[in-house]
Amino acid sequence: MNASPFLRRALLLDAAASGATGALMLLAASPLAELTLLPPGLLRAAGAVLIPYTAFVLWLGRHAAPPRGLVRAVVAINLLWTVESVAILALGWVSPNALGTAFVLAQALAVLAFAGLQAAGLRGAAPLPA
Prior knowledge:
This protein has helices spanning 5-27, 29-36, 40-61, 68-90, 98-123.
């Protein structure tokens, strides 16, 4: 498919935000854990997952014709991240303070927004000419 500029920007914005968040969680897990009362191991693990994800989404966003299935996978991963973020709070798997809860919910909302933007961009993507 030919990716619209909208879809490519949505992917690149996701990559930028994921990279920044991943670096923060990976490199500053201990100070962030002290501020949020989120487990430092969870923060490090989430940050470590985001680094290759960032590279993958950046790669997709830089292609004029990213495979539709791979973009759908990014949307699915973003939806799963959102559900898991809410679940760790709702099921009591972590006990953050108010700042920690806000941190988890804010990034979940941002990730959900990326999924929505990317899904909208997929609907507007043109098929490759035969």
